[in-house]
Amino acid sequence: MRIKAFDRLRVFACILVVLVHVSAQGISASAVDSAAFAFCQCCNILAFSGVSIFVMMSGALALRPGKETPVRDVVVKRFLFFLGLYFLWKGIYLVFDLLRAGQGVSGSGLKQLVLDLIGGRGFYHLWYLPMIAFLSLLVPLLRQGVQKKEVCLLYLVPFVVLALLFPTLFYFEFPFKYLLMDFLGQFETEYFLGYLGYFILGHFLYQWKEDQTGRKRIALMIAGVVALICGCIFGVQRSRADGVFFDGYSSPLSFTNLLTSSAIFVFFLQNQGDGPRGSATGAKKKPQGPSPRFSELTLGIYLIHPMVIEILKDCGMFIMGDIAAVTVPLYVVIVTVVSAAVVFLFKKVTAMIKR
Predict the structure, then answer these.
(1) What span, in angstroms and rounded, lies between the C-alpha atoms of 89 and 121?
(2) Under a CB-based contact definition with an 8 Å cutoff, are residues 327 and 334 in contact?
(3) What mean pLDDT is reported for the chain?
(4) What pLDDT is stored for residue 107 in this prediction?
(5) Contact 303, 128 (CB under 8 A)
(6) CA–CA gap between residue 209 and residue 288 (Å, rounded)
(7) 33-37, 64-68, 74-78 — which one is most confidently predicted on average?
(8) DSSP label at 276?
(9) pLDDT tens digits, residue range 263-322?
(10) Which of these, 11, 14, 13, 42, lies nearest to 26 by C-alpha position?
(11) In which element (H, E) is residue 228 found?
């Protein structure tokens, strides 16, 4: 079964991920007290919802009832696939950096390349691949338990309160703040609360979507918008007070991001039309319409779009200027379209070679 709402949501989340890195360029190129900086920081705060949404979609798809996945498939088709993809693209970006620096891939350069491939950190966006690879190993363990709402809540409540709400509150000053920080710090919740929470949350919101009344949805939408506005106001104020970019709200692990990403997730599920594509006999058809077709390109866009940004910068074609409200959306469109075109052509060429 292909869930149509997730095709649209995947496209939207992909654009948000591109916005993360385009807006980051504007942040680094603008004065912290400028309007361009404030606009780019607000875009960055919104855009990080895309990361949470991708994890939530992965959880909703992997943990849905009736989907039995043999352990071998989990290891080979999910874990080894994403881990292999990580090292492959880590190597591609290492070579890309060497070529940009005018260095060859031979001799000492080759040795350093191998060492960096083994022990170095990958390009800034590649962290997502090993994270989702290791989350996939938990699917057989989680699937049975998370089919009960109370079991999901058993994890989601401490996730929301301890991993998101309190860390966000600690950005502010209030009585007994540091005593509370010391008290919660002794539990070291970062070791067991994190992206797994979004993974289970995606399943929770999708599995029990029928329990979401119209009023609950509207309340969540309002909370998501208010959280985004508050994150933008407080984030920009903190950046100007510190004199440097404050990234506390530009993270999936903030309470404001939780509300915004959950509101977007539920909004796209409202009119999902999630029946299986194809005939009544289950015969598959090619996806129809722009959303499913573009959805098939999103993994490739995610992998290649930072390279497109760097090439545009090297060619002197990535200039933010003072009118970020125009240049940021423009570059998001350019980077997304160019990346999609490259991925589309690559798929066509590989399909022709296989024939």
Answers:
(1) 12
(2) no
(3) 89
(4) 67
(5) no
(6) 25
(7) 33-37
(8) P
(9) 999 999 986 654 444 433 344 455 556 678 899 999 999 999 999 999 999 998 888 878
(10) 42
(11) helix 214-242
**70 alpha carbon, distance to own chain's centre:** 27
Contact in structure between 23 and 44 (CB atoms under 8 Å): yes
The token pair at 290 is 């722009």
The 3-state DSSP class for residue 121 equals coil
Task: Identify the residue whose tokens are 């996945």.
Answer: 69
pLDDT recorded at residue 289: 63
User: Left, alpha or beta for 245 (phi > 0: left; psi -120 to 50: alpha)?
Assistant: beta
Q: Which of 57, 44, 60 is nearest to 10 (CA)?
A: 57
Please give the Cα distance from 163 to 168 (Å, whole number). 9
State how far the Cα of 270 lies from the Cα of 237, in Å rounded to an integer. Answer: 35
Give the CA radius of gyration of the chain: 21
List the one residue out of 199, 235, 295 whose CA is nearest residue 7. Answer: 295
CB 321 within 8 A of CB 23: no
| Cα-based distances in Å from 41 to 57, 167, 243 | 25, 20, 13
- Cα–Cα distance list, 162 to 47, 131, 202, 237, 322 (Å): 23, 20, 18, 25, 39
